[in-house]
Specification:
Among the domains are: about 80 residues, Glutaredoxin, CATH 3.40.30; about 40 residues, no CATH class. β1, α3 and β2 form a beta-alpha-beta unit. It is elongated, with a radius of gyration of 42 Å. The model has no long low-confidence stretch (mean pLDDT about 85). The strands form three sheets. It has a four-stranded mixed β-sheet, with helices on both faces. It has a two-stranded antiparallel ribbon with strand order 5-8. A two-stranded antiparallel ribbon has the order 6-7. With about 240 residues, the protein is an alpha+beta fold. Helices cover about 45% and strands about 15% of the residues. The structure holds zinc ion (2 copies). The site of one zinc ion (ZN) has 7 residues, from loops.
């Protein structure tokens, strides 16, 4: 009987121990669970914080595309870099075309017309400087090219491209199109001169002379003709927008 009681007590103790152990395990488990929860929360919080700096796939793709476009632009600039740097006034970022509207020398006139046609065909805006209409343009062209050259002469973004022969061949091998990339397209005629390139001088009404006060003792005249300072030798003013 005594032995049985002892066994019972032992068993009871064991049960309590197991119970305590179980409780302890449960406690331990819940603490582990809490830790896991905590860690998970931390991870979620952290990842939502860095979300802004992590680039989603589609943005990565856009960035790559942009980079490629930049590269292409650089390549095109590369073509431009093959040409000698020689910038006409106001030609840093535009197309400047020296031409003549005089039919005197047929070959020159035809060459100018060909280059003009190509530029118009590419629908780009260009500054047209008619050397037969303004001696300043002729001198400007001669100064740029270091001699008494004839038109046409084409400049793109401050670089000298060439005369008719060069421009025609660049058009044929597709390089002209690349050289003209990024130049604004023509949307409407020049708002200032309607593509006439010159305006009739409003000071002298195109006569290029003005009657100014001047007393001459001998003749007794009080007025004399002077050269108008507002315009060129033809009584014309260059269009500020398109020449
Ligand atoms: Zn104009
Ligand atoms: Zn004038």
């Amino acid at each position: 009987m005594k032995g049985m009681k002892e066994r019972l007590v032992k068993k009871m103790k064991l049960i309590t121990t197991v119970k305590t152990l179980k409780q302890g395990l449960a406690l331990h488990k819940s603490s582990i669970d809490r830790t896991i929860h905590h860690l998970r929360d931390e991870i979620v919080a952290e990842s939502s914080q860095i979300k802004g700096s992590v680039t989603p796939r589609f943005l990565e793709f856009e960035a790559a595309e942009e980079q490629e476009q930049e590269q292409n632009l650089e390549d095109d600039r590369g073509i431009l870099l093959e040409f000698e740097e020689n910038c006409p006034p106001g030609g840093e970022d535009s197309v400047v075309f020296y031409t003549t509207s005089l039919r005197g020398v047929r070959k020159t006139f035809e060459a100018c017309r060909r280059v003009r046609f190509l530029l118009e065909n590419h629908k780009v805006m260009f500054r047209e400087r008619d050397v037969s209409m303004d001696s300043e343009f002729r001198e400007e062209m001669w100064r740029l090219l270091g001699g008494k050259v004839t038109s046409p002469r084409l400049f793109i973004r401050g670089r000298y491209i060439g005369g008719a022969e060069e421009v025609v061949s660049l058009n044929e091998n597709g390089k002209l199109k690349k050289l003209l990339e990024g130049i604004s397209l023509v949307e409407s005629p020049c708002e200032c001169c309607e593509n006439e390139r010159f305006l009739i001088c409003s000071s002298c009404h195109g006569s290029s002379r003005l009657l100014a006060d001047h007393h001459d003792e001998e003749s007794g005249n009080d007025k004399m003709w002077t050269r108008c300072r507002e315009c060129n030798e033809n009584g014309l003013v260059k269009c500020p927008l398109c020449t």
